[in-house]
Give the backbone structure.
Amino acid sequence: MPRLVTFGCSYTFGLGLPDVHPLVSIKDTAPSKFAWPNLLASKLGYDCINNSVPGSGNLEILLKVFQTEYQPDDVVIVGWSHFTRYDFYKIVSKNYDGARIYEKDKNFKKVVLESKFSEINYQLNSFVKNWLCISHANLFLTTMGIKNYFYLNTTGWEAENKPEYIPVDGNLNIYPEDYTIDQALDNAHAGLKSQELLAHLMYNKINNELR
């Protein structure tokens, strides 16, 4: 059976949904069966492989894309995270294992200061790094013959500021405001109805291409 293989952060994991709330341990908890990957896979008649990890930034997601083994008939969808999270992950080994730095951590401010950019230049530099991640994943999967798509869990400003010289295909052009109609139990993530709507929107975007 074909597989739907997904990557992302807590939005793709389904954080706050009934079967993963409250979340005691990320390591020991499987992604929610109520999140859009499982719902979309069911609509398509595919197996679901949800490789998302709450708290992931886009560099971490990209490395996860690289480290995954694929099958020829896989379909991949990446839910890219907030662009500000790119610098939250620092590689510490040759296996691309790393340590996370969160925005509230004093080390995050140190990372920003070490970049030696003004705030606006730091943001623009962040746009470039994130879009390079998205492009790299897209080119990597396409070169292997794996059909792949993505959407952004981010602001319209970040989405609209993609550098023209960075090639990216597969944008589903779906944004949080298109599907967020209720909140999960943590009042911070998409609820059950929102997850269903997101799966429906994605199905309408890709179903004809997969036939």
Observations:
- The longest helix spans residues 119-143.
- The chain is about 40% helix and 15% strand.
